[in-house]
Structure formats: structure tokens, C-alpha cells
């Protein structure tokens, strides 16, 4: 898999540092509260686990699965709900954990869904933010790294369900997906 990577952007240690920093920020901001942490499957699961290890607050966890890439390298523009949240979120403080914010469509869809279900407050924590890719106006409240407008994989992010298990985030060589 390493041979398919053009350049490593964020090492295992840099990612661990970002998770620790964000966990401490969340601990400070949510002291005395019991938020519901919702991890966006499949990509955000590794990041969610690492942030939660640094989050010293009582919290519940749930998962939601959405799809917009459908195996490609660009968002299809359509967001499909694959797995619904199982928790009652009415009146809850929500921390939505994402792997990457690119176009913003998925994030906008999820925030609207949570608000429609009666969430008290929705904050977004993301490993990667790609502002250059944005087509809708959304933003994260907690950001690990701003990422260039490249197709990245690793540490949960995939291409065609592969590369999620790389311990770093890197730019995938175009030759891999332009076959």
C-alpha cells in the first residue's frame, strides 16, 4: 500500500498529537455535560477512538453511516443515509466526529438531520478540513488539520474501501485511481 502513496501528509505521531489536542479541547468545553458523540462510519472510526481516549468527560457514543463518494474520488453530490443513529438525541449536546470535510454536503445533511431530530446543540470535530473543496457553507468547530485539495487516504479514509488501515494520511497517486 505504501507504494501507492505519493506523499505522506500527516504521520501517525502527528495524528496522535492532533487527537490529544482535540480531546483536551473537548474535555474543557464539555466539562460537566454528558454529550453524545456520533462517529461517521466508516472513515471516522479510528479518529473517534483516539479522540475519545483523550476525552475526560462522561459521554455516550453512537454511529451514523452515510455515503456520497460511492467508490469514486469525488463526491457524487448526493448523500445517502446508510445507517441511522440509534440513540434518542432530543435535547442532547452532540459532537459529530468526521474524518474529512470536503464539499460540506455530507456535513450539512447530517447537521440538518440531527437538528430535525431535536438535538440541543451540534458541534463538529474533524480530523481533516479541506476548505478548497467546499461547495456549501459549513464549518467544523474542532479541526485536526487543514488539508490541501488532494485525494487523501489512510487512517480511516479510503479509496474503494482500501487504504483505511494505513497508520498515516497520505496523497494517493493519481495512477492508482485513473486506471
Automatic annotation (TrEMBL):
GO molecular function, one term: nucleotide binding
Keyword Transferase included in the entry's annotation: yes
Catalytic activity: GMP + diphosphate = guanine + 5-phospho-alpha-D-ribose 1-diphosphate; IMP + diphosphate = hypoxanthine + 5-phospho-alpha-D-ribose 1-diphosphate
Compartments, record wording: Cytoplasm
Domain of life: Bacteria
Root EC class: transferase
CDD domains reported in the protein's UniProt record: PRTases_typeI
EC numbers for this chain: 2.4.2.8
Residue stretches making up the Phosphoribosyltransferase domain: 14-159
Location (main, coarse): cytoplasm
Protein function: Purine salvage pathway enzyme that catalyzes the transfer of the ribosyl-5-phosphate group from 5-phospho-alpha-D-ribose 1-diphosphate (PRPP) to the N9 position of the 6-oxopurines hypoxanthine and guanine to form the corresponding ribonucleotides IMP (inosine 5'-monophosphate) and GMP (guanosine 5'-monophosphate), with the release of PPi.
Family, as annotated: Belongs to the purine/pyrimidine phosphoribosyltransferase family.
This protein's name: Hypoxanthine phosphoribosyltransferase
Classification lineage: Bacteria, Bacillati, Bacillota, Bacilli, Lactobacillales
Amino acid at each position: 500500500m505504501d507504494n501507492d502513496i505519493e506523499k505522506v501528509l500527516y504521520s501517525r505521531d502527528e495524528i496522535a498529537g492532533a487527537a490529544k489536542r482535540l480531546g483536551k479541547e473537548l474535555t474543557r468545553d464539555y466539562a460537566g455535560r454528558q454529550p453524545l458523540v456520533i462517529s461517521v462510519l466508516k472513515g471516522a472510526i479510528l479518529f473517534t477512538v483516539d479522540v475519545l481516549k483523550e476525552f475526560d468527560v462522561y459521554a455516550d457514543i453512537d454511529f451514523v453511516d452515510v455515503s456520497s463518494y460511492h467508490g469514486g474520488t469525488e463526491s457524487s453530490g448526493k448523500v445517502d443515509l446508510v445507517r441511522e443513529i440509534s440513540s434518542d438525541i432530543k435535547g442532547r449536546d452532540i459532537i459529530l466526529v468526521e474524518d474529512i470535510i470536503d464539499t460540506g454536503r455530507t456535513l450539512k445533511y447530517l447537521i440538518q438531520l440531527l437538528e430535525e431530530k431535536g438535538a440541543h446543540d451540534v458541534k463538529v470535530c474533524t480530523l481533516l478540513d479541506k476548505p478548497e473543496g467546499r461547495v456549501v457553507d459549513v464549518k467544523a468547530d474542532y479541526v485536526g488539520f487543514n488539508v490541501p485539495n488532494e485525494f487523501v487516504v489512510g487512517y480511516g479514509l479510503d479509496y474503494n474501501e482500501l487504504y483505511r488501515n494505513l497508520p498515516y494520511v497520505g496523497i494517493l497517486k493519481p495512477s492508482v485511481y485513473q486506471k
